[in-house]
């Protein structure tokens, strides 16, 4: 199996001298091509800091992060910008769509930056929009869309360039239960049919149950990890709840 992401003994400190806080404490794991991995942990566990380091929004204090053969902890300037543009896809909780562009134009933006021709761009956008069930909103502006539609447009924008790794930060956090379920079913589709490699941070057990593996973070360290294997989603959900209980978190926060 091809390894897409390798996180190697990373640490992250905040603050200075006597007021240092260790947000990440020696985390190591890998993600293979085509995996759908969820990272769970309570508030302050380090899960968002971990995602920020992988997405190059933040820098590690020590250790290395590789996306395929590239050590992204060493990238700077134009090399870093090119890596973000060509190798990563981002899905944020608050969508981050441009209000002055239609859904079609928001999705097209990433391809435009890469210099894709108009015919190729149009075909790709319509293919991905069909897979995410947003063909009917392509000519709409963000203010004309529901939260679920906006998040699916943001997801289309993230995968349209076929990045090596899609990073999702609490993607269902701003959605109602119906919209969240629709989005997660689309994630499953992208993972299974397009072989998209997805790394998703969430505090929600229902959301995590759509992944094929869940890594649990506590106090900046990996506490546990579980694999879905041949389990049904309900069985996997129950296993996730069991680990959440062991973590000592508020169970109701995870539901």
Spell out the blueprint of helices and strands.
Blueprint: E1 3-14, E2 21-32, E3 36-40, H1 47-54, E4 62-67, E5 70-71, H2 77-87, E6 88-91, H3 103-113, H4 118-131, H5 147-159, E7 165-169, H6 177-193, E8 198-201, H7 205-208, E9 213-218, E10 221-227, H8 233-247, H9 251-254
Parallel strand pairs: 3-8, 3-9, 6-7, 7-8
Antiparallel strand pairs: 1-2, 1-4, 4-5, 9-10
Helix pairs in contact: 3-5, 5-6
Strand ordering within the main sheet: 6-7-8-3-9-10
Discrete helix count: 9
Q: How many strand segments?
A: 10
Examine the secondary-structure arrangement and name the CATH architecture.
3-Layer(aba) Sandwich
Total separate domains: 1
Order of helices and strands: EEEHEEHEHHHEHEHEEHH
Q: What is the CATH top level name?
A: Alpha Beta
Looking at the structure, what is the overall shape? Answer: globular
Class inferred from helices and paired strands: alpha/beta
CATH superfamily label: P-loop containing nucleotide triphosphate hydrolases
Q: What value does the average pLDDT take?
A: 90
Distance between the termini: 33 Å
**What is the helix fraction of residues, given as a range?**
25-40%
Instruction: Please report which band the strand proportion falls in: under 5%, 5-15%, 15-25%, 25-35%, 35-45% or over 45%.
Output: 15-25%
Q: Determine the CATH topology.
A: Rossmann fold
- The gyration radius over C-alpha positions equals 18 Å
Uncertain runs are: 250-255
State the major sheet.
6 strands, mixed
């Amino acid at each position: 199996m091809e390894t897409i992401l390798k996180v190697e003994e990373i640490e992250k400190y905040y603050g200075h001298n006597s007021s240092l806080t260790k947000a990440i404490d020696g985390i190591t794991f890998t993600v293979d091509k085509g995996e759908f991995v969820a990272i769970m942990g309570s508030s302050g566990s380090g899960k968002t800091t971990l995602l920020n380091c992988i997405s190059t929004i933040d820098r590690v204090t020590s250790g290395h992060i590789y996306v395929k053969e590239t050590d992204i902890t060493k990238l700077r300037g134009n090399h870093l910008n090119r890596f973000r543009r060509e190798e990563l896809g981002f899905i944020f909780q608050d969508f981050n769509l441009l209000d002055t562009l239609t859904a079609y134009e928001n999705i097209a933006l990433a391809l435009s930056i890469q210099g894709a021709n108009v015919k190729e761009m149009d075909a790709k956008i319509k293919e991905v929009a069909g897979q995410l069930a947003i063909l009917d909103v392509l000519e709409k502006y963000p203010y004309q869309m529901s939260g679920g539609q906006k998040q699916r447009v943001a997801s289309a924008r993230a995968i349209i360039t076929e990045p090596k790794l899609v990073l999702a930060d609490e993607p269902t956090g701003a959605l109602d239960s119906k919209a969240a379920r629709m989005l997660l079913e689309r994630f499953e589709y992208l993972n299974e049919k397009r072989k998209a490699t997805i790394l998703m941070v969430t505090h929600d057990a229902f959301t995590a149950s759509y992944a094929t593996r869940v890594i649990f973070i506590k106090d900046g360290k990996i506490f546990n990890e579980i694999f879905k294997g041949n389990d049904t989603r309900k069985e996997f959900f129950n296993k996730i709840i069991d680990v959440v209980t062991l973590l000592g978190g508020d169970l109701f926060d995870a539901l």
